[in-house]
Amino acid sequence: MPLHFLKMHGAGNDFVVLDARTTQLNLSAAAIRHIADRRLGVGCDQLVIIEPDEAGADAFMRILNADGSESGACGNATRCVAALLAEETGERGVTIRTISGLLKAEILGPGLVEVDMGTPLLEWGDIPLVGPADTLHLQLALGPVSDPAACSMGNPHATFFVDGFAHLRIELIGPKLETHRMFPERANIGFALIESPSRIRLKVWERGAGLTLACGSGACAALVNAHRRGLTGRQATVAMDGGELLITWAENGHVLMRGPAETAFAGELPDLV
Length: 273
Ligand SMILES: N[C@@H](CCC[C@H](N)C(=O)O)C(=O)O
What we know:
- Pathway: Amino-acid biosynthesis; L-lysine biosynthesis via DAP pathway; DL-2,6-diaminopimelate from LL-2,6-diaminopimelate: step 1/1.
- It is built from four helices and 19 strands.
- The protein has helices at about 30-35, 75-90, 170-180, 215-230; strands at about 5-10, 15-20, 45-50, 60-65, 70, 95-100, 100-110, 110-115, 140, 145, 150, 155-160, 190-195, 200-205, 210, 235-240, 245-250, 255-260, 260-270.
- It has a 17-stranded mixed sheet that branches. Strands 9-10 form a two-stranded antiparallel ribbon.
- The radius of gyration is 18 Å and the shape is globular.
- The protein starts with a strand and ends with a strand.
- It binds the ligand N[C@@H](CCC[C@H](N)C(=O)O)C(=O)O.
């Protein structure tokens, strides 16, 4: 049976979205990699599967990286799925469960969504790191980058603060940092340039997907880590190659992420399962 899909993106971070609320889907890692392949398949950074949620959220969202691995968080996909679910229910508020927990989203206008990404985890064991460490200053250096800060936004992130991007060969250092022994579950690696206390330029080498045009959880991690270092206030615009997100680390500890959610096209996959 061909499988209906939507191609969506949030600030250029792109997704193949499948609806498995009425039919169960068991995609192998090889099938996920094939769908995500930009030459042989549809092409995407993540494959997102909407599943029923037994515990009362509007839906469960499964997040699968282009390499077939699973993640607990994807900020940009959460906005996309929230926009889809809100269209169905006609409600502004949407709740979505992931393997990392429950997220609340609110539709602010056409194609504009805010998600409460929950509270960042700052302890080494929660990120996780390989052993006890100061998560504000990791003893990690590679080529021109050093001294990142780490946190979990439901998935592991390390943020390096940089002076510019011209001298960075992210395609070379990204995979080495992602798979560094310090990160037993690998990590998403952000490179953040602080332009002002309320503006960050960010590039993210994503775990399981490589260099993407934007990373929502990476933008949240960059703001959290920048604020912990005293480099920004609690709110900043995070500008990435594919677009901008407004990130707020609220006084109650929750991180709010506001940004676009768009549908590019719809299509059908041949039977790959
Ligand atoms: N694109 C995402 C993050 C997707 C998952 C990540 N690559 C991981 O493995 O944790 C976002 O917008 O947050």
